[in-house]
Amino acid sequence: MLCSKEKRIGKWNNRKTSQQYRALTVPELTQQMFDAKNMMAACDPRHGRFLTVATMFRGRMSKKEVDEQMLNVQNKNSSYFVEWIPNNVKTAVCDIPPRGLKMAATFVGNSTAIQELFTAMFRRKAFLHWYTGEGMDEMEFTEAESNMNDLVSEYQQYQDAPAEDEYDEDEEEDQEGEE
């Protein structure tokens, strides 16, 4: 899962010893949520596809404007969203903003881009000691990665197969059953 939070744009104000932030618009919040620089994991979501996305907007704003902006993101970036999961982007709006801000947004997305991070971390054996310390074997991770790669290859084979091939296989099975 990838998470992001919008960047707060502001400048230091020495008199109040606090930061003053410029209020962001709904389009700016939406753009920042999907920006790779604001992701809380070190992977670029443009290197994968989103299976599902959940967003939470906080503050006084139009639900209609939020829905329009999210629809714009999906339409302009349709190649970054899988087409086989209908209605895979959900939004919520809470009228109460975080303290000190007029609006804010949070994003959680299930993206295939996380695999690049997993692969890099697994090669370095990062965090592996936590699992082996609990009784797991490193070989279990290697086997799971291999099984996952096999499954991905199988799915890609079906995805790349033309529709006629699937029909021909069904016809052959029907003919064999009749004999």
Q: What summary fits the major beta sheet?
A: 4 strands, mixed
Tally the helices: what do you get? 6
* Strand-residue proportion: 15-25%
Q: Report how far apart the termini are.
A: 50 Å
Strand order of the largest sheet: 1-6-4-5
Structural class, from secondary structure content? alpha+beta
CATH class of the largest domain: Alpha Beta
For the record, the count of structural domains works out to 2
Number of strands: 6
Helices and strands, in order, run as EEEHEHEEHHHH
Q: Any idea what the radius of gyration is?
A: 23 Å
Helix percent reads 40-55%
By CATH, the architecture of the largest domain is named 2-Layer Sandwich
CATH homologous superfamily title of the largest domain: Tubulin/FtsZ, C-terminal domain
What do you see in this structure?
- Keywords: Cytoplasm, Cytoskeleton, GTP-binding, Microtubule, Nucleotide-binding.
- Belongs to the tubulin family.
- The protein has helices at residues 26-33, 63-76, 114-124, 128-132, 138-160, 163-178, and strands at 2-5, 10-13, 18-21, 50-59, 89-94, 103-111.
- It is α+β, with helices and mostly antiparallel strands and 179 residues long.
- The chain has a 4-stranded mixed β-sheet, with helices on one face. The protein has a two-stranded antiparallel sheet with strand order 2-3.
- The protein folds into 2 domains: 26-111, Tubulin/FtsZ, C-terminal domain (60s Ribosomal Protein L30, Chain: A); 118-160, Helix Hairpins.
